[in-house]
Amino acid sequence: MNMYDIIFKKREGDVLSREEIQYFVEGYTGGTIPDYQASALLMAVFFRGLNSRETFLLTDAMRHSGDVIDLSAVHGVKVDKHSTGGVGDKTTLIVGPIAAACGIPVAKMSGRGLGFTGGTVDKMEAIPGFRTDLPREEFIAQVNRIGLAVIGQTGKIAPADKKLYALRDVTATVDNIGLITASIMSKKLASGADAIVLDVKCGKGAFMETEEEAIQLGQSMVDIGTADGKRTIALITDMNQPLGRAVGNSIEVMEAIHTLQGEGPDDITELSLTLAGYMIYAGEKATSPEQGRELAERALASGQALIKFEQFVEAQGGDPGIAKQPDRLAEETGKTELRAKETGIINGIQARSIGMASQHAGAGREKIEDPIDPTAGILLHKKVGDKVEKGDLLAVIYGTSAEKRAKAVIEAESAYTFGESAPVKKPIVIKVLV
Ligand code: URA
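Above: inputs. Below: predicted complex with uracil.
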């Protein structure tokens, strides 16, 4: 077997065998297949696609390229939640505590932000003292004790994905359904949960721009999870404008806490309750998603979810006082205002540009090792459908560097479009695939 033949076969639109897929994944991860051949194969896959069996085989080979976590020491049905990547998506910090407060063990491994999308690990590290590198025993003991732990995903989980994702990122081969499915599901299946709830983002700030593509991706991931014997559910959700009002690290934690206090923006609250409802159902603590949702609502309204968040922060070394005083997180930083240059109704806020602006302010990184400013980000004072007068405050850019904030303002301003009427309001949850 050799790489030339495998590339040629896919280039001609033929179906790859288990052995060929394994040969590629093992060889590329182990360093015997060079980047240029792997890139050529990725591009052939991008144009020719992978059928469902090839997608399953690629996922399986990538999943077994590193550690496969055994969570059997955690009591109960473990449920994982994963988002395909969005702007302002802080739902893990909300649904984790809600689900845990309803008796679902959540043992979650999360990633860092890259490009215009944020990562849960960076958000949690914006809490002073918070540790995301718990050793395995401590991680499991914490889930058994309080029902929730979130740690950074190590390079030992699906290392094939780490290498392949970096290569896809620079060869314009990220947004392909088979490759995204294998990338996400290899990590999810290696992380040891019994059930998985996926949040597939759809719209201008997501990898999948159309509803049709997002549904295809969701179905592809549901099929892989189900074929592996795990209850897998996908929610197709809107990502045409940022989720909530905060984009950044500290300010997203603040917004997550406000939501747990019952005072979050409607879109975040709705999405979090729906996701948590499905997690509670998938974790067998409810007999239907509707009942799961009711339990989630009760956990939020009674304050139990907020108490769970406080316990979670304290258990991982963070300052639990922020659960009562979240605004302390962004007290000591600089601010620059963005004001409307025209009067009208906002008919679009490009999520991608807001994500980029937050990155320019210092919240994100271009390379994985770049340092970030936890206080950097953007708080949107107006959202799609709002009427604004010339001079009204549209957004505030946060961050310690005035120079970076100035760059961010220019990018943020380009995100807004104005018109004479508001666009038709879309529901945040577009469809559910079970
Ligand atoms: N997130 C991932 O982990 N992988 C992809 O390919 C896309 C989004």
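Residues 332-419 form a domain with the Aldehyde Oxidoreductase; domain 3 fold (CATH 3.90.1170.30).
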